Amino acid sequence: MATLPLPDDSGPTMSKQMTPPPAVTIRGLSRSFGPVRALEDVSFDVPVGEVTALLGENGAGKSTLLKILAGLQPPSGGSVSFFDREVTAFSPNTMLTEHSVAIVPQELSLLLDRTVSENILAGVEPGNRLFPSQRAMVQRTIALLDELGLRIDPRMPVRELDMATQQLVVVARSIARGCRVLILDEPTAMLTPAESDRLFALMARLKAAGTTLVYVSHRMPEVFALADQIEVLRDGKHVASWRADETTPQRVVAAMVGRELSELTTRAQSGARPIPASGAVPAIEIKELSGTRHSSISFELHPGEILGVAGLPDSGRVELLQNIFGATKGTGGTVSLGGVPYANRTPSASIEAKLAFVPGERRAQGLLSTMSVGDNIGALTVRAFTRLGLIRRRAFDRGANERAQALRVKTATIDQPITNLSGGNQQKAMLGRWLAIDPQVLVLDEPTRGVDVGAKSEIYEQLFALAAEGVAILCSSSDLPELLTITDRIAVLSEGRLVGIVDTASATEESIMTLATGAVSTAA
Amino acid sequence: MTASTLSAPRARFDFRKLLHARESGVFAALVLLFILGTVLSPNFAQSGNLLSVGQQISQIGIMAIGATFVIVNGEIDLSVGSIYALAAVSTGMAIVAGMSWPVASLIGLAVGAFAGLLNGLAVVLLGVPSFIVTLGSLSVFRGVTLLISDGAPISLSAKLPGVTEFSLLGQGRLFGVVPMQLLIFAAVAAVGVILLSRSRLGFNTYAVGGNQEAARLVGINVKAVKLTAFVLSGLTAAIAGVLGLSFLSYVQGVTGTGLELTVISAVIIGGAALFGGSGTMWGTIIGVIFIGLLQNILNINGISSFWQTVVTGLVIVAAVAADTWQRKRKTKA
Predict the structure, then answer these.
(1) Ramachandran region, residue B154 (left: φ > 0; alpha: ψ -120 to 50; beta: rest)
(2) Residue B103, pLDDT score
(3) Is the pLDDT score of A469 beyond 90?
(4) Among the four A483, B87, B121, B149, which has the fewest Cβ within 10 Å?
(5) What confidence tens digit (pLDDT) does each residue in A343-355 have?
């Protein structure tokens, strides 16, 4: 490293090393919520012009740290500096205008009925602020999008864009405001591989232009492909810091969970896959099933088997599961459970028939959001515990409590609101809810979305245990490594059609993607 | 993984839980209001005065019990003032026509429940937001009331058979002390508390109000739950209407105009959120008592009824602001 003389005005706090000041300097940062310490004495630097990945399990303090950096929340103690200027007022506006820091949150905040260019330039319109010239705005937007290598129609209303493109618009909006530090909160959680690649290309471009990126993700391969620097939080403390090329995914995961995580045994390795006798009755058989965004889908699934469903987000995966369960009406085809035809499918008929469905959109479709953990877990036992219209509360609570413990739902009491739990524990509660009906067929969508590493492996183990008891499991996921870990076979959908069912043991991410993108079609 | 730290199933009675309950804030405000009333006027804390407050709040209270079901469902019923008049006029006309008072009263209740059913059907089957449906039916039921009574007031003269007995419902006092209306409110409230907090219908109501789609996916009949709430709301409005007729022996087409706002205010002050899924029957009961005491305090201190309207409005906003602030703190914690 070259040794240059320090400029005189560098101040006493500047390090003696001959590097430029870090983009972000975090010193002794703490944040308490009542007795809960969400962040405790966190200190690290984010180097300029690099991608820094911030990792940690749910509840590790990542969100709190990001919120402080974005000015959405003040810290209880410690300091944050951007380019050696300490932040004195924590507000999103100050962060952006004074420190050039912007965040791309998980829940995008766009004006859905305004155009792309109006969204990107809102507040920084060229020329007259009150009556900005549409033409000037569009031209300015085109120039900016060009620079970012994005091909988006500036006149398109944002509502008509898919989520991934909307996210890119948010990034462009930050850049239009001259942001030099961009914080991305789990940006790939909802994206397809192709969409993620588009985002990564944009990130690479921004990095090359000198923008500093701080990025949160649960996906290890992605982190190692993108990040220069890795910082790990656990239980509110900063526990590890590496250059990305000096560590391994295993060591990072170990730091996140605080212990060495044995590499999960996959179904293929464990040899747990059942071999149904010829002529055995499948637990569920689907023939020529059609409905919204899917048509003529047929497969069968035997007791104890785990069948994955892969496909791009618009492949009709979710709609297929909803049709099977009876959450939506199909347009044709049949479903049989244990050899018995199951027509007129509705949620309550499915519950009766021991067909369970854990939806993927936990917040929108799973959580009874104003109710307690116990009520959420026990929702399907209400009927059984009702005498003369009244719920036998004590017995009901005992049942819910037992199931919460069996699934290791971490909660102070089952009287807590469900929304107080972390994503992983909410998901365990959702699974626990459906185990109450003693399912013969368990249908899951995105079983570990927004779930941290530890809870993820617990959920996998639970699924394996259920399969061992003879439950037939149908599991859809956008997370291919997940499907490759937990399934016996994988049904691949492309544009609403079943393009193949592959044996997981011989499948790879590439082979599945090839099928899902319609590049090749093999017979089922 | 670390062992979970679940507590044993909750004990039947937990004092700390009582303090932390959502209603505790409103209850504290109610206690403060009571102290304030006592300090301001020596007449306030007299049993006679308090019992007459009990009399005054009964009809609003009964309606608020039904309205709580609708609001916890995430819906709203603006038509209860009109149903109140429709039921009262129906019962009054039936008595005048010579029917016995119990039959006439049942007719009034049936008319109210049916009006509620119509509201519910329009919401559930047509998918029109309940605000719009009941804004319309507020007008329709009022119009029907005026039509059937031909706009003329109905007076129950004591000479009509059964009117003396019927009047006891609204005017009578048990042992000459406790107003009958208050007892009826207590009975309706008791049923409401049990239904909402202990019954399967109550569970389903919270489930639907909190997340309709999730409720549907766990096999809850969302439409039936909503229909029931609107029927209960219509029925309780009718009970109040029949009591109102009994109390005054008089009703006309415009009786009960604007009652819906007082009813909804009581439920909101009691802690229910208009988004649905939250609120309790106890909260509503406290909210009703709060409004009654507030008006009484303003009354006995000679403050004009114009100011009462202003103060009630401010209290509603203050109550919800306090609740929002508390919730914000909670989510941060």
Answers:
(1) beta
(2) 96
(3) yes
(4) B121
(5) 999 999 999 999 9
Q: Which A residues in the span 352-371 are in contact with B, Cβ-Cβ below 8 Å?
A: 357, 359, 364-371
Chain B closest-CA separation from residue A325 CA (Å): 9
- What kind of fold does domain A264-354+438-524 have according to CATH? Rossmann fold (3.40.50)
Asked whether the beta carbons of residue A386 and residue B5 sit closer than 8 angstroms, the reply is no
Domain boundaries, chain A: 17-257, 264-354+438-524, 366-436
Cβ distance of A369 and B216 shorter than 8 Å:
no
Asked if the domains A17-257 and A264-354+438-524 are classified in one and the same CATH topology, the answer is yes
User: CB contact, 8 Å: A256 with chain B?
Assistant: no
pLDDT of residue A10: 42
Does the pLDDT at position A37 exceed 80? no
Q: Do B206 and A351 touch (CB under 8 A)?
A: no
* Look-up of token digits 């027509």: A343
Under an 8 A CB cutoff, do B206 and A398 touch? no
Give the A:B interface size as CB pairs under 8 Å: 114
The structure tokens 């890119």 sit at A168
Here the tokens at position A152 are 């988006």
Calpha distance B36→B298 (Å, rounded): 11
Q: CA-CA distance, B309 to B298, in Å (whole number)?
A: 10
User: A37 CB near a chain B CB, below 8 Å?
Assistant: no
List of residues 6+ apart from A265 with CB closer than 8 A: none
Nearest residue of A to residue B7, measured between CA atoms = A413
DSSP letter (8 states) at residue A419: G
CA B317 to chain centre: 19
Q: What is the pTM of this model?
A: 0.78
The answer to whether the CB atoms of B4 and A409 lie below 8 A apart is: yes
Top mean pLDDT of A115-129, A135-149, A298-312 is at A298-312
Q: Provide the 3-class DSSP secondary structure of residue A219.
A: coil
Nearest CA in chain A to B17: A415
Crossing angle, helix B47-72 and helix B180-198, to 10 degrees?
30
| pLDDT, average across residues A341-368 | 94
The answer to whether A370 contacts B10, with C-beta atoms less than 8 Å apart, is no
Homologous superfamily (CATH) for A17-257: P-loop containing nucleotide triphosphate hydrolases (3.40.50.300)
Contact assignment for B4 to A411 by CB distance below 8 Å: yes
Whether A250 and chain B come into contact, CB under 8 Å, resolves to no
pLDDT of residue B81: 97
Band (pLDDT 50/70/90 cuts) for residue A18 is: low
Q: What is the largest CA-CA distance in chain B?
A: 80
Distance CA B298, CA B40 (A): 10
Q: Which parts of chain B have pLDDT scores under 50?
A: 1-13, 332-333
A389 and B332 within 8 Å at the Cβ level: the answer is no
Asked if this assembly's ipTM is beyond 0.90, the reply is: no
Tell me the domains of chain B and their CATH numbers. Answer: 50-320 (1.10.3470)
- Closest approach of B131 to chain A, Cα-based (Å): 22
- Tens of pLDDT along A143-163? 888 888 888 888 889 888 888
* Of A478 and A228, the one with more pLDDT: A228
What does the alpha-carbon distance between residue A82 and residue A7 come to, in Å, rounded to a whole number? Answer: 19
Cβ <8 Å between A347 and B333: no
Residues of B in Cβ contact (< 8 Å) with A348:
219, 221
Query: Nearest chain B Cα to A345, which residue?
Result: B219
Least confident of A111-115, A322-326, A440-444, B219-223: A111-115
Asked whether the beta carbons of B169 and B245 are under 8 A apart, the reply is no
Specify the length of chain A in residues: 524
Of A369, A391, A401, the CB nearest to B203: A391
